[in-house]
């Protein structure tokens, strides 16, 4: 899978309130890439991630997945595309509090009307070290465990690419380190492409391609 962003821009407001959150970003992502995006608060990291993953629409520019311009799809097509091809991990885990870990993980399949592959769910749980926690509710889990459940949820539909928005931002350094190890092993063992936003230069350096964003301008570090 090849993802190409061309002059992707996002502008909020107008006149005196105009904010150029993303300024003509060009980026190409190949299958198996591990990409980190660093930048200060307010520099446009989340905006870039939301645009690359089809969660938001750009003001101008285009984005293709294997040559297909995803912003030309209807909203319905785009959300189906996202559910099937893209996994997303958030800083705040975003688990549903009334569902068990297992039910949270299965949720994307349910939403897409697809049959749950229970064996795959169990494999993921084992890989992520949460097999013993599947019947627990989120509040019965530590932050690190909740994020691992969220990683399993991001993977259950077998997407090609995982986008992670500060996945360790809400965790202490020990659980953050464990979550990063899991993400790296998912990439090597399951062959997923990984794009991760981080404030932490130690995490950014683990990636094989590092991008920096300042005032909406994206550059690749070499
Ligand atoms: P980061 O993730 O690096 O903290 P963001 O992508 O969230 O940065 O934001 C980039 C810039 O765009 C900031 O100046 C922010 O205030 C602005 N911004 C983000 N979302 C909105 C919005 N919905 N309306 C107006 N301005 C926004």
Brief description of this entry?
By secondary structure, the protein is an alpha/beta fold. It has helices at residues 45-52, 75-85, 101-111, 118-127, 143-155, 173-190, 201-206, and strands at 2-12, 19-30, 34-38, 60-65, 68-69, 86-89, 161-165, 193-198, 209-214, 217-221. It contains 7 helices and 10 strands.
Describe this entry's structure for a reader.
The protein is an alpha/beta fold. The chain has helices at 45-52, 75-85, 101-111, 118-127, 143-155, 173-190, 201-206, and strands spanning 2-12, 19-30, 34-38, 60-65, 68-69, 86-89, 161-165, 193-198, 209-214, 217-221. Helix 3 packs parallel to helix 5 and helix 5 (143-155) runs parallel beside helix 6. The two termini are 23 Å apart. The mean pLDDT is 95. The site of adenosine-5'-diphosphate has 12 residues, from strand 2 and helix 1.
């Amino acid at each position: 899978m090849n993802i190409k962003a061309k002059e992707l821009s996002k502008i909020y407001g107008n006149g005196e309130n105009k904010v150029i959150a993303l300024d003509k970003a060009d980026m190409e992502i190949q299958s198996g890439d591990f990409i980190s995006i660093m930048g200060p608060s307010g520099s446009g990291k989340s905006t870039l991630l939301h645009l690359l993953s089809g969660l938001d629409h750009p003001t101008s520019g285009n984005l293709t997945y294997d040559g297909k311009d995803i912003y030309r799809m209807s909203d319905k097509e785009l959300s189906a595309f996202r559910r099937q091809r893209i996994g997303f991990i958030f800083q705040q885990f975003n688990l549903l509090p009334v569902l068990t870990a297992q039910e949270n993980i299965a949720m994307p399949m349910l939403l897409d009307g697809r049959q749950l592959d229970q064996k795959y769910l169990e494999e993921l749980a084992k890989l992520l070290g949460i097999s013993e926690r599947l019947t627990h509710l989120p509040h019965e889990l530590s932050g690190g465990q909740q994020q691992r459940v969220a990683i399993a949820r991001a993977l259950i539909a077998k997407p090609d690419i995982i986008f992670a928005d500060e996945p360790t931002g809400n965790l202490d350094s020990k659980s953050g380190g464990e979550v990063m190890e899991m993400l790296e092993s998912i990439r090597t063992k399951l062959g997923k492409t990984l794009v991760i936003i981080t404030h932490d230069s130690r995490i950014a350096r683990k990636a094989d391609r590092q991008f920096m964003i300042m005032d909406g301008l994206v550059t690749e570090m070499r």
